[in-house]
Write a structure and sequence with these properties.
This protein is α+β, with helices and mostly antiparallel strands. The protein folds into 2 domains: 142 residues, Diaminopimelate Epimerase, Chain A, domain 1; 165 residues, Diaminopimelate Epimerase, Chain A, domain 1. It is 19% helix and 39% strand. It has 5 helices and 18 strands. It has an 18-stranded mixed β-sheet that branches. Strand 15 and strand 16 form a beta hairpin.
């Protein structure tokens, strides 16, 4: 039996495993991630895939912390495997940690230190009259990798893009280059455009991370309306990641990456707040908390991203011995 608590942040699901996984060997968070990937992936398929999940399901597996000061440690999972960072899940986990008593409750703000595969992420949970509310987080240092690059994309022509890291690497591109528009184009059209750019760049644009090679891969593409989220007018974006999974939220790590690219272009300074909107209308706030220098000497930022998460239910899942479809399948 596997037990879970389900939440959503900005419409994007967060399925938190609360029981049923076998013990995970001690080690670093990336070693735990590798072990779960290599030995327990059948459980990811059970929880993320149909008939218990769906193509765009997202999950969290709490594991024993390794970093000093961590209140909890987590692995993130989806339709393709295991990601390195997930901001919408961190927002949910901040509230969850307060509600479950994983951390002591402090008003008006409770701090939750969450060890993620990309490093320590610090969540700040607003608390009023003992109840957890909105959550913001400061992630690992974010940085721009490439700005104002161009690539010839079959079927679309020459496309301009940026690449930035916000706990995961993303390509960032104006959706209008692909002939799609928010509020009028089909989601499938966004998926096709973003996937074409992701696949092209994975093949032709090698990435490197200053701290760990396991973090150096392109997670997906974020298509934007080219806005900057200033003056109280949110900029819309959609993130297509993993195996063409569509984020219903504005994407926490994606907002972080967008802020890093905006800062590198001089379009935002420390302390300025911007707003980001998803394809379902949910919003995250984002700001540059401070500038930093990366371990390899490059400039970067620490971003603060905020939003709200809500509970949707709890469940117990089983697998009968002769239920082959119950092991997990996908229909797209």
């Amino acid at each position: 039996m596997l037990t879970v608590t389900d939440m959503h942040t900005g419409g994007e699901p967060v399925r938190i495993v609360t029981g049923g996984y076998p013990p995970i060997p001690k080690g670093t968070i990336l070693e735990k991630r590798a072990f779960v990937r290599d030995h327990l992936d059948h459980l990811r398929r059970m929880l993320m895939f149909e008939p218990r999940g769906h193509y765009d399901m997202y999950g969290v597996l709490p594991v024993e912390p390794d970093l000093p000061g961590a209140d909890l440690a987590v692995l993130f999972m989806h339709n393709e495997g295991y990601s390195t960072m997930c901001g919408h899940a961190v927002i949910a986990l901040g509230r969850y940690a307060v509600d479950q008593g994983i951390v002591g409750l402090v008003e008006p703000v409770t701090t939750v230190n969450i060890e993620c595969p990309c490093g320590m992420v610090v969540a700040s949970v607003e608390v009023e009259n003992g109840k957890a509310g909105a959550v913001s987080f400061e992630s690992v240092p974010a940085f721009a990798v490439a700005l104002q690059q161009r690539v010839e994309l079959p079927g679309f022509g020459e496309i301009g893009f940026d690449i930035a890291y916000g706990g995961a690497f993303y390509a960032l591109a104006d959706c209008r280059q692909f002939g799609v528009e928010f509020r009028s184009s089909r989601v499938r059209d966004f998926v096709d455009a973003a996937s074409a750019l992701t696949n092209k760049l994975k093949a032709e644009f090698p990435l490197a991370h200053p701290d760990h090679a396991d973090l150096a891969f392109l997670y997906g593409t974020i298509l934007t309306d080219s806005g900057n989220g200033a003056d109280g007018v949110a900029t819309r974006n959609v993130c297509v990641f993993a195996e063409e999974e569509v984020d219903r939220s504005p994407t926490g790590s994606g907002v972080t990456a967008r802020l890093a690219a905006m800062h590198a272009r001089g379009a935002i300074g420390p302390g300025e707040t911007r707003f980001f909107e998803s394809i379902v209308g949910s919003q995250f706030s984002g700001s540059v908390a401070r500038t930093v220098t990366l371990s390899d000497g490059r400039p970067g930022i620490v971003a603060r991203v905020g939003g709200r998460a809500y509970y949707t239910g709890k469940a117990e899942y089983i697998l009968e011995d002769d239920d082959e479809l119950g092991r997990g399948f996908l229909v797209r």
